[in-house]
Amino acid sequence: MSPLPQGRARGGLLAAWPPAAMAAVVLLAGLVVTAALCYREWRMAEARADALHASLADAAEARLHDPLDAASVALRAMQTVFLSHVAMDQAAFARYQANLRAVDELPGYRTTGFARYRPPAPGAPPSYRYELVTPIEGNEAVMGIDIARQPANLRALERARDSDTVVMSAPFRLAQAQEADSRALGVTLRLPVYSPGQVPADPDERRAREVGALAISLQLDPMVRAALQGRILEFLHVDIRDLDTGPEPAVVFAGGPLPAHAGTPLVRELQFGGRRWEVRMHPLERRPGLVHVRSTAVAGALITVLLSMLLWSVAGTHRRALALGQRMSARFSESEARFRTLNELLPVLVLLADAPGQRITYANQAARQRLGDVVGTPLPALFADPRAREAMPGAGVSGGWDGHEVAIGQAGRAFWARVSLAQVVVDGAPHLLLTATDISEHRELTERLSYQATHDALTELCNRREFERRLSEALRERAVDPQAPPFALLYFDLDQFKVINDLSGHIAGDQLLVELVLALRLNLREGDMLARLGGDEFGLLAFDVDEAMAVALGERLRRCIDTVRFVWQGRTYSVSASIGVVLADRPGISLKDVMAWADSACYQAKEAGRNRVHVYREDDDSTRRLGEMEWVNRLRAAMEQDRLLLDYQEIVPVGEAAGAGAHAELLLRLRDESGDEIMPGSFLPAAERYGLMPAVDRWVIRTAVANFARLHPRGEALRTCAINLSGASIEDEDLADFILACIAEHGVPAERFCLEITETVAVRSLLKVAAVIARLREAGCRIALDDFGAGMSSFGYLKNLPVDLIKIDGSFIRELDEDPMSRTIVSAIVQIGHQRGLKVVAEWVDNARVLEILAELGVDYAQGFALHRPQRVVFQR
């Protein structure tokens, strides 16, 4: 189309308006639009800033709760210690506090103290003097302080005692702090301590059982700064006041002088421990969007001025007709050059291609630097992925691309870019305009984060989450296509891994895992997926296998692990693996089913002797562990609801060993939810497997000592009370302290108690057991070696174990009147025991003939149904 008709079409409008007037109108309209955009940008920036400050203010309130909650947890934990163990000195107090570790990382933590309650004398107030303090260094001044001399603290402590809740003091200057300003301020959190037993349920019982109060001192400045560090203190000026100190709130935290440009304060109220803190936060910057507003204003004004000037120029040139045509052309060329110059400086890749042939006709500087000389090259050739070339819209197609992420460039130099493609008209001809932004770094970061979320950091294997996702996907694919080849899940657990961790530390264990994974990778098939499911547990998805192939693969992995020799600091270790195999060859199975079956198969492999492969069968005893876990929950509930029972069975002297008083062994029972009595064989195996035996043993010890005079009908005439100890308990270094503390608390002579340990436990942990036994015997307790003779090496250990009695295993006693070999073994045990100066007890005596033989052989005591059937202890009848 000729430009002449266009010029005439425009001429009517240009003639009606003088060039200056048109330029002024355009300039005014452009400035109005620019101002509106600037105002909108400013309001949006203000809204974002307000939302950020409000979010930070809410976060500040929540994060200030965290250290106070942590201190409360520490107080509650120490209260629990006192409820179960009132005999506390400075060393025990410090040790319990160190073991709890609840305040190790608590910023501002200063000290934990215990103030003992002394009842008021006539005409005088009660006394709460600090007797125990930890750490003692730097806190010596706290010892001996009487809380009762501070009326406000006394009222708070009494409120805490009656409600059994944590109370917090008003801010005060800490005696331990070195600073001279508000940084020396601190608070004290207090919690009452009651006498041992269940937690008191009402105020009257709490007052009656009050023995003192626990307190934790916190320095406020480091506590608050640690809680609010980061963006909160970066964007907000924070001042905190205590609202409950009187007409003038006390300073909790001072953020320094308030800047002149600070914004309207955000106020939050924090309530904790019976006190209210006002958290007043002033935004430090109220002009977060100023840079964007300035940029919008400058760009809009510049564009408006240029547009008005251009319009003025065009109108003036048209009015001067053909005489000024050459000058107008020159100005147009100059404007085009300026546009091209600005386009050249853009950091975004800009390419222009003719629509019919899709060949590039223009590339800006950024495009030439990243792609080289691409003018004349077909536009689709820029895409490294053939699918992107096919998906690229051609000329004449409406729409285009907007924000597609594709790889651009040739192999070896390709990079990821976010591409937008649109159809434009240039000089009256259709073109394709492509803009691309390099997102390689962003994509690399995204892929790295995705990798870290789905892989184990130590072994670089897939983690449990990714493994279960891939397993679920495989199960769904098989559900859609039942004819698809089956796959197998191999679940394996290292057998001796804990030994290496215990002997050489977790660093050695981690290094072993890395070496095992390297060895396992060499034995995997292509396409199989190996993952670390946690700790020393691994999973493998093997695709397109039958049962025989899965077992063969499991055996190969088992042998691979078995042959690894791990050397660490001069020691050589070997490990093995128990592998469970599940074949996913049936329809309708779920992720939960497959994982449970695999775990059951692995468990069966361990039960069968470890270092083997076991294929899951539907008749496997997979419910046993579920049953044991159910017993664990029932046993915990029984202990909480005081449904454990004690029976006693008398131990009767044989022949000339008779003497005054009675001897009895305590036997554990359980009353279930319906009131039925359950024997220990039903629940003790679960308790041993899942680590509940120490708690059960301590319950028996504490109950027996506290009710010693009410165990047997003969009351305090009971000469010996025998208590069985599990292996987990006897290996606990604190067991002796617990037993001796219970005996001392209730004033029962230590020689009245006989503690029984099985021979297998004693042999397994000889050094630990010997140390505990030695302490108990030194205090007066007697020690019995139970089930003697069942360990196959009993006589060799007798000379190394400091015991007082040996109880012959009942398997030898039961057939004593029929089996000559049993009689010979019992005779040998009696002779060796007497040579060592030990008393000998025979268990499972079921008839009078066996008792006669025991008397002939010189056995000192006998125990069994023929002599006495177990009866309920007196205080539980």
UniProtKB/TrEMBL annotation:
This is EAL domain-containing protein. One of its GO terms (cellular component) is membrane. Residues 628-877 form the EAL domain. The lineage of its organism: Bacteria, Pseudomonadati, Pseudomonadota, Gammaproteobacteria, Lysobacterales. SUPFAM superfamilies: EAL domain-like (SSF141868), Nucleotide cyclase (SSF55073), PYP-like sensor domain (PAS domain) (SSF55785). The chain crosses the membrane at residues 20-39, 296-315. It comes from Luteimonas deserti. InterPro entries: Biofilm_reg_signaling, CHASE_dom, CHASE_sf, EAL_dom, EAL_sf, GGDEF_dom, Nucleotide_cyclase, PAS. Residues 120-229 form the CHASE domain. One of its GO terms (molecular function) is catalytic activity. GO terms for biological process: signal transduction. Residues 485-618 form the GGDEF domain. Residues 335-372 form the PAS domain. Pfam families: CHASE, EAL, GGDEF, PAS_8. Keywords: Membrane, Transmembrane, Transmembrane helix. The keyword ATP-binding does not apply. It is found in: Membrane.
